[in-house]
């Protein structure tokens, strides 16, 4: 079986990218390791290991 990587095109589609009332803006709501955060900020080809598609209707569209 082929092992497929999750490809994060943008934080905008991630389930962990949520609006924070305190900051009055969108933030990543995952408890990310400092090393992962550093790689994510420095290396454009680094894929976020925590990315989860936030489209809850994806499964429904496939069933139709």
Describe the structure.
This protein is of the alpha+beta class and 64 residues long. The chain has two helices and two strands, in the order E-E-H-H. It has helices spanning 34-42, 58-63, and strands at 17-20, 25-28. It has a two-stranded antiparallel sheet. Strand 1 (17-20) and strand 2 form a beta hairpin. The chain starts with 16 loop residues before the first strand and ends with a helix.
Task: Please tag this protein with its features.
64 residues, alpha+beta, two-stranded antiparallel ribbon, 2 helices, 2 strands, flat
Helix content: 10-25%
By DSSP, the count of extended strands is 2
Could you name the ranges where pLDDT drops below 50 across 5 or more consecutive residues? 1-8
Residues in β-strands, percent: 5-15%
Q: Write out the strand line-up for the largest beta sheet, numbering strands in chain order.
A: 1-2
Structure annotation, total helices = 2
How far is the N terminus from the C terminus? 27 Å
Largest sheet: 2 strands, antiparallel
H and E string: EEHH
Structural class: alpha+beta
Shape: flat
Q: Please, what is the average pLDDT?
A: 76
Structural Rg: 14 Å
Can you describe this structure in just a few lines?
The protein is α+β, with helices and mostly antiparallel strands. 23% of the residues lie in helices and 12% in strands.
């Amino acid at each position: 079986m082929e092992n497929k990587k999750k490809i994060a095109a943008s934080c905008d589609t991630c389930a962990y990218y949520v609006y924070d009332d305190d900051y009055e803006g969108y933030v990543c709501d995952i408890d990310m390791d400092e090393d992962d955060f550093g790689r994510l900020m420095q290396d454009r080809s680094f894929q976020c290991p925590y990315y989860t598609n936030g489209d809850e209707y994806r499964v429904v569209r496939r069933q139709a």
